[in-house]
Design goal:
With about 475 residues, this protein is an alpha/beta fold. The protein contains 13 helices and 14 strands. Helix 9 links the parallel strand 8 and strand 9. The structure holds phosphoenolpyruvate (PEP) and cobalt (II) ion.
Length: about 475
């Protein structure tokens, strides 16, 4: 069935900018992406894929349209500098990590970072996890060779298994159903915890703040972080002492989900129309994003994501051009709807100051509403002497700081950050006050893909960003 998109109806105020693209957009349907090239297509057995997708279509959605619309409103506020987005989680979620301590620790670090930012930045935060569906990974090569044997690459647990054997690397469409079920279990636990099970982690006295004592931290910073922590604890005690909110109400926190919308069979099978709303919703997640490798204008991913109502992110690396960005905006948010489109820049600490300003200026000049988000991870990956992938904490911090500087210089606002991080005590990124070196990397390197910040490194970054947010005035409300 072909449908014409119904955005821009009377119910949504739009600014209707002049599009860069002159011809009207082609008709869209949940499967119109199938006629476009997919740079990361998986070779499934067609009948088995069709069977799995048919079942996925019948299964209940993981999220709802009203949650999606609520997130869009939050993101619209973040666009205006009135709120800040904190998005983070694993590079690749695994089925094996669908366990209570791992999930609880992910929420804990996201919540703690956000509390520090609220305290210092004096503005609300919207928390979005890379979880409950971050199971598909783009790869630079479709195959991997070891000792003369060539097998398909590991594309994430949504597709195949990491072990290097023919059966493990076979793309099995049943994995779509298995991954969906694990996303549902993860989300079920997240919803329970965020509904009131978080009493302790609200309180800095229960946090792991030993990184304050790290040799890499100056006395001034340490004193500043200790002051923030004390003020935060006092503010929380004060709210509780008011007695108007029960502890349970105070510990109710809102989390949204996100993942790279890489597998279009998975995304489109859960894309539906819902009663009393216009348009189509991708109900696998609140906030899917298009990766750096699949953002081709004429590709299958842009085709699919231009047709859904969810807010959508697009990763932008240092090779993107102004014209490409403006065309992506035209395709993904033709009506200039607030909160609809996030541009997630991942330029690398070395390139960001050269590359980003002209892009930001062009989007601003074109009058396009976007949420600017900084992903300081993916432009800063390097190989350690052992061959393990790592990232330097200083590069990560520097890219965030320089991105803030660029937006300040352009008169725009950085509305959020996007991290690969975990609540576990892993040794994958080097540096930070905890002083992880390349020699520590194989002590606890657990990522199924890219290196993540560990609990202490993530909290330290949170304090740094909070400090930067605190030095900026917030635009007045209303
Ligand atoms: C990712 O977010 O894990 C990823 C692959 O990012 P990018 O598309 O920016 O390379
Ligand atoms: Co990654």
């Amino acid at each position: 069935m072909l449908v014409v998109k119904g955005r821009g109806s009377a119910s949504r105020p739009m600014l209707n900018p002049t599009p860069v693209t002159q011809h009207p957009p082609a008709r869209w349907a949940p499967d119109s992406w199938k006629s476009k090239p997919d740079a990361q297509a998986i070779a499934y057995e067609p009948q088995a894929l069709e069977g799995a997708c048919a079942r996925l279509k019948e299964l209940p959605p993981l999220v709802t349209s009203w949650e999606i619309e609520r997130l869009k409103r939050h993101l619209a506020e973040a666009q205006q500098g009135k709120r800040f987005l904190v998005q983070g989680g694993d590079c690749a979620e695994t089925l094996a990590d669908c366990r209570s301590p791992v999930i609880a620790n992910k929420l804990k670090i996201l919540l703690q970072m956000s509390l520090v930012m609220i305290q210092e930045g004096k503005r609300p935060v919207v928390r979005v996890g890379r979880f409950a569906g971050q199971y598909a990974k783009p790869r630079s090569k479709p195959t991997e060779s070891r000792d003369g044997v060539e097998l398909p690459s590991y594309f994430g647990d949504l597709v195949n298994r990491p072990e290097f054997s023919e059966s493990a690397r076979r793309a099995d469409p049943e994995n779509l159903i298995v991954a969906y079920s694990h996303a549902a279990m993860t989300l079920n636990f997240i919803r329970s915890l965020s509904g009131g099970g978080f009493a302790d982690v609200h309180h800095p006295e229960f946090w792991e703040l030993s990184f304050f004592r790290g040799a890499g931290m100056s006395d001034t910073l340490r004193a500043e972080y200790e002051r923030t922590t004390k003020q935060l604890a006092a503010a929380l005690r004060f709210m509780e002492a008011l007695g108007e909110n029960t502890l349970e109400e105070l510990t109710r926190v809102e989390f949204f989900t996100s993942h790279e919308g890489l597998s279009l069979p998975y995304e489109s099978a859960q894309t539906r129309q819902v009663p009393r709303r216009e348009g189509w919703y991708d109900l696998t997640t609140h906030f899917p994003w298009i990766g750096e490798r699949t953002r081709a204008l004429d590709g299958a991913h842009v085709e699919f994501f231009r047709g859904i109502e969810n807010p959508v992110g697009v990763k932008l690396g240092p090779t993107v051009g102004v014209d490409q960005i403006l065309r992506l905006i035209d395709a993904l948010n033709p009506q200039n709807e607030p909160g609809k489109l996030a541009l997630v820049t991942r330029m690398g600490a070395r390139r960001v100051s050269d590359v980003l300003p002209s892009l930001v200026e062009a989007v601003k000049k074109a009058g396009r509403l976007v949420l600017w988000v900084c992903d300081p991870m993916h432009g800063n990956t390097q190989a350690a002497p052992s061959g393990l992938k790592t990232r330097d904490f200083d590069d990560i911090l520097r890219e965030v700081e320089l991105t803030f500087d660029v937006h300040e210089g352009c008169g725009t606002s950085l509305g959020g950050v996007h991290f690969e991080m975990t609540g576990e005590d892993v040794t994958e990124c080097i540096g930070g006050a905890a002083g992880i070196t390349v020699d520590d990397l194989d002590r606890h390197y657990a990522s199924a893909c890219d290196p993540r910040l560990n609990y202490r490194q993530a909290l330290e970054v949170g304090f740094r960003i909070a400090r930067r947010l605190g030095s900026h005035a917030i635009p007045s409300r209303g």
